[in-house]
Amino acid sequence: MPFEPTDLPDNILTLSLKKVVNWCRRSSIWPLPFATACCGIELMATASSRYDLARFGAEVMRFSPRQADLLIVAGRVGIKMMPVLQRIYLQMAEPKWVISMGACASTGGEFDNYATIQGIDQFMPVDVFIPGCPPRPETLIEGIIAIQKIIDIQGIPDRSKRPLKIAIEPTYRPAPQPHSS
Fold it and tell me: pTM for the whole thing?
């Protein structure tokens, strides 16, 4: 006689292992903040009682890469900071995700010079870009919801994440300086 789910009592729940693992993972994201500028203030505001990041299971900010699975890069990143940021990313446990928060981390923002990275996605894989200068806390919450959707889609991860470009060779060429006449 074949087994039917309707034969079970009402107090038994049947799920696949993939759904349980994804629910646990998406409900307990541990972010590591890499905040270097004004976006860091908005990141701190997101954890306050007004916006309550705890609703999404991401209230435990970890400052050790080995205990975090979500890297939030908030603010501008200098060319001298990029090797440190890459090392932090490499030390994070798998599976891991990256949010690029704000215009400076995503595109260099208003800092159009040789010392500022013009988008961290040139050097590490970024899962979610959050626009704004600085973005509002609600926008960061939408970014974390987007990470949760990615977790639901990915399932139990395989170990084939995109490779890093470890060498620091920016692809950005600064515009020529104006000459005074």
Answer: 0.77
